[in-house]
Amino acid sequence: MTNIERLAMYEAAEQAILEGGQEYEIAGRRFRRADLREIQAAILRLKRLIDEENTGSAGTNRAVVRWNKR
Fold it and tell me: How far is CA 4 from CA 7, 24, 46, in A?
């Protein structure tokens, strides 16, 4: 499974929680979905991983500043 596929699954899980609530009941049995915060944290991690895969960086952000010499 690719990170993009995993991201889609986590986003679907987040949507289910947001639309249907954290807990639900069927035939007298209570069910609890995964924790929304954990799902959202996983989404952020996967988006960073996908971005790193696409840009070729491994979390290194560098900036070069050049000062004008007078």
Answer: 5, 28, 8
